[in-house]
UniProtKB/TrEMBL annotation:
Residues 23-54 form the Zn(2)-C6 fungal-type domain. The keyword Cell membrane does not apply. Keywords: Metal-binding, Nucleus. It holds the Pfam family Zn_clus. The lineage of its organism: Eukaryota, Fungi, Dikarya, Ascomycota, Pezizomycotina. This is Zn(2)-C6 fungal-type domain-containing protein.
């Protein structure tokens, strides 16, 4: 039985209706009479005025929230008028010298939209790093042919749709030829260093996402899986340098870096991640991967497009990599669904792992556009945020059924048993959308600190979304092996940090559970911290922030 309970995520799901409701979400869910103001008298009486919002729905294909008729002042308009009148009165009142109010301690925190991510990666960079081992290639721990074959098979089944750096069965054939030749070679010196960089990245990443039962069945060179994974990661970096990748641009360099993208941050190498990702993008431009048609051999055109969009997704979707890549810099279309690799759902339709990649590419494009428009400062922040949120909502509305958030029909459960990547993709995509929705509305946090009533709805969206991230992480159960990748830690850290920051600012009963939610974040991060250096750092930072917030809340005043 699928352990994931059914739930409609309030931060992602939109229903279709004939007209937008005037009642607020809270009254509608409680089935009580609403006076249809915002905030309504019911929410004000319950002390929940800040979270009183109307439901956003789809009306005749358009995303709509009910707006009061002209002439009817909203709560926000009344608040602004009150503030204007108060300012006018104060301007005419006799001036009296007074001491400026002291700001609370938490107000001194930086409130940049990406402050949490920046703080986490800065802390990661300050940790002492283990240098790449000095090879002598004899230090490389080669797997047995049977072990190597099992790891490549795992990459094809579980990791290939994450990095899309390789094309199967072509790479599997290259691997078979490698094993056959290895039987007659005394060392790895006779092999192409660029290909070896790809190979060792593949098997290191395979160990990362393989469950303990699967790795226990392998004939591993040593029993210490963590040490072995590090050995292969270092070997991949070593062979990249041996191939002189900075002077000799090749497609294998881009492939190796794309796969290493699953590893850098987990090993605490976030700075190396940024550097290598920029190198991979530059190499891609040089060899023509950023063009619709290139002269690259060894990869089909669709495989090249998928690899390029892997680079773009990670560069545009936040997190560690940053680059100045712009959509005008490339002419690569979005990947396409092909017959090869498609699977039947049993109802006559077909699905393909690349559909996840396509929609992640569209989400990356939407978020990148949001950042560009926001950076110009030519439009009000709220307008930019709402436009970007509508793009995400349209994206969700167009998802194939197996990627839709919150689905758990019997046929979906059967598909997930047949193809485990379906559930993995659904959870990853949902968490990514939730995280980026939090990022959208989080840019308004300075505004709602200055004008709480006017921006109450934006703050409410962030609170709901942060809790949804934690809820999905708790209930849409995935094996720990599928939670080891670093974005999982980043999403939880940002959700927990937001709840701590807002919890320190308010003592409202409706938000009294934020401590429990943050403790859940810390617990989930601890479960994968031995595999993920960023998760370990995120857990420590959240615990410190939580302790500080609790201490400040319980400190006697007066």
């Amino acid at each position: 039985m699928d352990p994931r309970p059914a739930r409609v995520l309030p931060s992602l799901s939109l229903r279709t209706t004939q007209r937008a409701p005037r009642s607020c979400l809270s009254c509608a869910s409680r089935k009580v009479r609403c006076d249809k103001s915002v905030p309504c008298s019911q929410c004000i009486r319950r002390g929940e005025a800040a979270s009183c919002v109307r439901e956003t729905v789809i009306v005749r294909g358009q995303i709509t929230t009910r707006v009061d008729e002209p002439g009817v002042l909203t709560y926000e308009e009344l608040a602004r008028e009150t503030a204007r009148l108060r300012a006018a009165l104060q301007a005419n009142a006799p001036r009296r010298p007074r001491e400026p109010p002291s700001a609370p301690a938490h107000a001194a925190e930086a409130c940049a939209p990406d402050h949490d991510e920046a703080a986490l990666f800065q802390a990661d960079r300050m940790l002492e790093k283990k240098p790449i081992i000095s090879f002598n290639e004899k230090e490389i721990l080669l797997p047995s042919p049977q072990c190597s074959t099992a790891l490549i098979a795992h990459d094809e089944a579980s990791n290939s749709w994450v990095h899309y750096a390789l094309e199967y069965p072509g790479f599997a054939h290259q691997h078979s030829a490698f094993l056959s030749r290895l039987e007659h070679e005394a060392s790895l010196e006779a092999f192409d260093s660029s290909w070896l960089a790809v190979y060792f990245a593949v098997i290191s990443a395979a160990l990362l996402t393989m469950n303990d039962e699967g790795s226990a069945c392998l004939d591993l060179p040593i029993p210490d899986v963590q040490l072995l994974r590090r050995n292969w990661y270092d070997a991949s970096l070593y062979f990249l340098h041996k191939a002189d990748f900075l002077r000799r641009p090749r497609i294998e360099t881009v492939q190796a870096v794309a796969i290493q993208g699953m590893l850098y941050v987990n090993f605490g190498d976030s700075t190396l991640y940024r550097t290598m990702w920029a190198c991979a993008i530059r190499v891609s431009h040089i060899i023509g991967l950023s063009k619709c048609h290139s002269g690259i051999v060894g990869l089909s055109q669709q495989a090249q497009h998928r690899l390029w969009w892997t680079l773009v997704i990670c560069a545009w979707m936040g997190g560690a990599p940053t680059s100045n890549i712009h959509e005008d810099d490339f002419t690569v279309p979005l990947p396409q669904v092909t017959e090869e690799g498609s699977v039947s759902t049993g109802d006559g339709s077909r699905i393909h792992p690349v559909q996840y990649h396509i929609f992640m590419s569209r989400a990356a494009r939407a978020y990148h556009h949001f950042q560009l428009v926001l950076r110009t400062g030519q439009k009000p922040k709220m307008e930019v945020v709402r436009a970007a949120d509508e793009r995400l909502a349209e994206l969700i509305d167009g998802l194939p059924h197996h990627l839709q958030p919150g689905r758990d029909e019997d046929q979906d459960m059967e598909l997930q048993r047949r193809f485990p990547w379906i559930k993995w993709q659904s959870v990853e995509f949902t968490l990514s959308l939730l995280y980026h929705r939090l990022c959208l509305y989080r840019v308004l946090q300075d505004e709602w600190m200055q004008e709480p009533e006017q921006y109450a709805s934006a703050r409410a969206v962030c609170l709901i979304t942060a809790r949804d991230i934690i809820w999905v992480s708790q209930h849409w159960e995935l094996p720990h092996s599928e939670r080891r990748q670093w974005p999982f830690a980043l999403h939880l850290f940002c959700a927990g940090s937001f709840l701590i920051r807002e919890g320190r600012r308010t003592a409202a009963d409706a938000e009294a559970d934020w401590i429990v939610e943050v403790e859940k974040c810390i617990s989930y991060l601890d479960q994968v911290s031995s595999w993920n250096a960023l998760a370990a750092q995120a857990s420590n930072m959240l615990q410190q922030r939580l302790d500080s917030a609790i201490s400040a809340a319980t400190k006697p005043t007066g």
